[in-house]
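Suppose you are handed only these lines of text.
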Amino acid sequence: MTLPPRDQLLRLRRTLLAYTASILHLLLCWLLFGAGFMSLSLGGMLVLSFVVLASGVLFLLSIWLNLNLRFHDPSLTLVQMCWAIAVVFISAYFVENLRALFLMMVLVVMMFGAFRLRLGGFVRVGLFTLLCYAVLMAALWWRGAAIEPRVELIQALEFFVLVLGVSLLGLEMSSLRNVLQQRNHDLHQALERIQQLAITDELTGLYNRRFANELMSQQKALADRGQYGFVVCLIDLDYFKTVNDRFGHAGGDAVLRQLAELFRHTVRDVDFIARLGGEEFLLLLSRTDTAGAEHLVGRLQEALRDKLWEGFGALRLTFSVGLSAYRGDEPWEDTLQRADAALYQAKEEGRDRLKSL
Ligand SMILES: Nc1nc2c(ncn2[C@@H]2O[C@H](COP(=O)(O)OP(=O)(O)OP(=O)(O)O)[C@@H](O)[C@H]2O)c(=O)[nH]1
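From them, the structure of the protein bound to guanosine-5'-triphosphate can be written out as follows.
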């Protein structure tokens, strides 16, 4: 059996809490029944208990079966609150003498809305409470219960002042919760941004040297476990200084950005490309052998030959590559070291070529 997602679990927990409160309310009813304050027969008490317990189970089931997700507010806060308030008023109808005390349960229900309802929700619950109160008074009057209008009016006023007070407190808590949620969201985004910045090269958006080292060590661990290889290519642009001399440093930057875009589009999704600094790049090819890497480098050279540099006219660029395949059970630094030596050879032998060691 799989557990519901976190949001649903939270809703279940909150509904379970409300269910516990309604069971406590029911216990109070039974206590008053035992003490002779309820004008309800044993059968009536059993029906009331069944209705309260069954409705709670229905709310819990609707969340467990995800039926609540079909509603505008999947927490069902308003529905649950109105139902709980109705139950309090229904049971209050049968209480003799202690009705005002009994109605205080409505305040507990109000507190449940504190973390979810906004102003509109509180107004609706308030109006619903008002309606319930009026219906209760009418029903009592209809039944011929002894109602002292002045006392009832004072009790009603006191009740509504309390409901208003609790609603205002609830609103305050609700807005506090919103602020906290927003802060949490902002912090989460800032953290994501920081994590992104920590691994990317600012100029090109490729991975940076620090992350390249991490990737190398990860690749080594994976290769050692999975018995497959990986290849490291160090790519260094030839005579890049002339680009800077011709177009200025900003122009050189723009060329590096366009080059990064070309690399990104040419390598496979499973491969990694990082800028180690200056005009030097590292290509990390996973599950590839030397032949496969040479093939990819050929494709990159071809793409570079055909590249039309936006804003740089007839610019032609080449690069030299030092390639090295991981030999198994060697430190990844050794693989990189060999690629570096191979790159040195490629430069020494006239550039625009690939050397592997
Ligand atoms: N625009 C720009 N230029 C950079 C950046 N980092 C390094 N460079 C330039 O890259 C050039 C590298 O020069 P060199 O090391 O002599 O290399 P090269 O001119 O490419 O010659 P070889 O590598 O020997 O073929 C220098 O002019 C640096 O200023 C950068 O972030 N932006």
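What can we learn from it? The mean pLDDT is 88. The radius of gyration is 36 Å.
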